[in-house]
Amino acid sequence: MEDQHHPHHHFPRRKRLERQLDSVILHFDCFYASVIENETPSLKNLPLAVQQKQIVVTCNYEARRRGLYKLQLIKDAKRICPEVVIVLGEDLTRFRDASKELYAFLKSFSWNGKVDRLGFDEVRFWLVSSVFMDISDIVDYNFSLLNHNDLANSFFCLSKDDPTLGFTFDAALVAGGTYPQAMNKTGKPAICSIRSAPSDCNDFLLRLHLGSHYARHVRQLLETQKGYTCTVGVSTNKLLSKLVGNLHKPNGQTTLLPPYDVSDTNTVVVDNVTSFVDGHEVGKIPGIGFKLAQKLRTHILGRPSELDLSAKENLVLRDERDVLVRDVRTFPGMGADVLERLLGGPGTPHGIGTRVWNLLNGFDDTEVGLAREVPKQISIEDSYIRLDTYDELLKELHMLARSLLNRMHTDLLNDDDDDDDDVDETPNESVLDAAAQDPKSTTKKRWMAFPKTIRLSTRPRPPQNPDGSRNRSFARISRSAAMPNFVFSLRDSTDSLADRLVSETLIPLFRRLHPEKSGWNLSLVNVAATNMVDAASDTAKGGVGRNIAKMFKRQDDVLRQWRVEEEDEIDLGEDAVRIEGEILRDADRFEIPDEVMKDVEAKPFPLVNTEEDVEQGGGGGSALWESEDEDMPDDDTFHCPQCGATLPLFAIEAHNRWHEQH
DNA sequence: GTGCGACAG
DNA sequence: ATTTCTGTCGCAC
């Protein structure tokens, strides 16, 4: 939620905090236990737990009813509920797919495109997808259509172009639940009537009503068309809509009712935003994580909270009362400055005091829809009880490399409809297996961004203590290198690319990380693609000129590297082969001078292995451990930002001409 | 640019 | 008695 920096930060200096009431924000929570239930409807009413490693990462409501919970050990879960259905959730691709589908679906209900997954990532806190939608424009438009004399017979218009598209509703009523909960005589939650609200809130309240009806409409379609149930919060900013949505779940929605501001009315001592946020434990506020909450609790209690001292069982927690937002907010002297001193410091983001103070007061000016289209980094990791043999390591690195490549494909490749371009394109030339995904369209995949760096991180198992007990350290160590260009190839199979990545890049990195040939024992391995560089953004139409400029700049860079290496006479032989390997693969696509083609050889596939390498221990056996240069020289090839092709330097001009002609 | 830690979910 | 898999940012060098 915090990760968006918006360029326009010219908020007029407000006298005091003043609520911004002109937006209507929806927050959708979709529970992925329902993804599995969708796939296998027979599971619907059974207790269902998703397992990762030794723990339950999430479970459905039936399982919760029987006492299962998140982060519970599988062993305990089975003891408490022997009939629980366990689903392996190590492979997140199904959930990512579902998340993407959900996101696309919700986006189709937005007019302004302000739809936002929490952060960039689709899957946030374990198999729950969280999406914000700013529907201020839709609400504004429909507000202007209201007949204030006959709210009960309103029509919600779903399209500015087609006034017949929409649904009828009662604008005097809110759809779904509310905070505070309205009660009728029977004691059951009742529908809140606008006529009972303070009159000066009417317009604002009406807009929230509109938002709630739109939310209900979208939820209904999501369920009937996609089969997902979700929970929705309706309010004026991300913080509030996310928090308030929690009040009716699963499969419900909640609207945070006015007054949002005490100045709205003289009859109310505290506004609903304040009373609502006040009741939350500090750590429950999105944006206040474990560490911040810990510092806040310590400050308020005057001692470390026992909640924070190693969660050492409920006995200790007996008398411990939660520290609520109210406790912090009303603490003597509390304010942004005090918080800045308390929470700030080396290594913490600037302005944290103000941000937290705002959150405590229900303010959140982060906007919806400014999420990046591509992540800054993609990483894959796995943890291990024990990973200390070279064999296993190779296997794991290969798995991680394959996953990383797959993620790069799903997250960094654009589907690009090329119906006006490439008229004489042969089907074969189309890259990747676009056909497998969408056989009908001539869809081409194109890289939206290129990670320039690859990083390998490990978490060595904490050193076995002399005194016998375990030491808790989760420190990671890492090394990085240039991302080899071949990973962007869209023709080679992921498996062979992964092989190459492991042997040519990851193993050398690992060697830098753990120079000892044995003796290491890892509890975690992570492979990351970082240092993301956007491909030219507007290649679709008329962006070619700019791209050519970029390409020449890049060509210059690469040529300079080349020259340096040439002068230094660094082991050119092998690289020359690699370059020619690329030439060979690209020769069928681009015109390449015959004199260059004539002495092309296939690149020998790098051999990776083996047990001997590790077990020979002493001075010398492993070829892998003996290579001279630490850094893998970058492939001296060029990848075209327009089509993703990898091609040799000298082919750039011809390639540009090719693009100009097509 | 590299490596690490803090932090959030 | 936990530690699961990401992603972002800022600091020191």
UniProtKB/TrEMBL annotation:
The cross-references to Pfam families, in alphabetical order and at most eight, read: IMS
- Sequence segments annotated as region (Disordered): 415-444, 611-634
Q: Name one GO molecular function term.
A: DNA-directed DNA polymerase activity
Please state every residue range assigned to the domain named UmuC: 23-289
Which terms under GO biological process does the entry name?
DNA repair; error-free translesion synthesis
Q: Report TM segments.
A: none
In Swiss-Prot or TrEMBL terms, this protein is called: DNA/RNA polymerase
Source organism, top-level taxon? Eukaryota
Upper lineage is: Eukaryota, Fungi, Dikarya, Ascomycota, Pezizomycotina
PROSITE patterns attached here? Answer: UMUC
- Where does this protein have compositionally biased stretches of type Acidic residues? 415-427
Q: Which organism is it from?
A: Aaosphaeria arxii CBS 175.79
